[in-house]
Amino acid sequence: MAAPLAVTMGEPAGIGGDITLMAWRAAADGALPSFFVIDDADRLEALATRLGLVSPVARIDRPEIAADVFARALPVLHRPLPRPVEPGRPSAGNAAAVVAAIEEAVAFAGDGRAAAVVTNPINKKVLYEANFRFPGHTEFLAALAGGVPVAMMLASEQLRVVPVTVHVSLRDAIAALTTAKIVACGRLVASALARDFGILHPRLAVAGLNPHAGEQGTMGDEDARIIVPAVAALCAEGIAATGPLPPDTMFHAAARATYDAALCMYHDQALIPLKTLDFDGGVNVTLGLPFVRTSPDHGTAFDVAGTGRARPTSLIAALRLAARIADHRAATSAAHA
Predict the structure, then answer these.
(1) CATH assignment, 158-277
(2) Three-state SS at 163
(3) DSSP codes joined into one string, 112-134
(4) What would the CATH number be for the domain defined by 1-150+287-337?
(5) pLDDT, tens digit, for every residue of 33-80?
(6) What is the largest CA-CA distance in the chain?
(7) Could you give the residue ranges of the DSSP H alpha helices within the chain?
């Protein structure tokens, strides 16, 4: 991986700064790829002092020098925040800077100056107050990439899950579920598993919607009417898909060994098993983007921001996975050149 990873500030009042400083400390043994963060250097220096961390900050003026700096200090592209930051108390006055950091990181990834984008958690309510018009990171990144179709994968060493419907109510998720939507998501996941994870013949497990996958129509007809045709269509395209599977029996260890990713029908059906198995090590990966993007699989955690109680495990996992995907894409590209 020639270029460093670009890390965004996330919500400044959340734990993004805490875990970024901690992740740099964890990189001292050389077990992490080099990265730089787009953030306010002054606030990170103050935060390191507050947390009692020996995490020196080095201001850089371009990504290309991050790797040279990384061994001795956390490289920071200094972007001053307009409002003072108090941990746990977000301000909409800093929302524009949060969004700008994401845009800048994507631009660096687009021109090859960053190998990948790793985003710290944002607070959607604060951004909405500043007229942010996207449901979240995933949709914003898709728009920055030109409106490409994307999917949200949550990945750990034990399980990969992809929800077909994401940040909507359960009632709206069921109403929005269609055969075409499941097929489109399945195609994208299968392609991403091959391109980003090196799985040449991906196996997809497709979850049912209702208890016992509908129990032959006695517990709802959506499984037979919507999901069965989707699985058949994916199989007809040469994608190894099975289902609909009863959601309560597809996540134990023996079942997980039979597939590479689980296609789930709604948000919690996917995230509950992933977070139960590996709450700290889960990583959010946006599939379908022309650049690599990962993120910790947790929120801003305002209650522990600035206290030293935040854990950098998920960010560290996100950095490692971003580097692995970037390396795999580069190797695949070189092989086909």
Answers:
(1) 3.40.718.10
(2) strand
(3) TSSSEEEPPP--HHHHHHTT--S
(4) 3.40.718.10
(5) 999 999 999 999 999 999 999 889 999 999 999 999 999 999 999 999
(6) 63
(7) 16-26, 41-51, 66-70, 95-110, 124-129, 137-144, 170-176, 179-197, 222, 228-236, 253-256, 267-277, 313-335
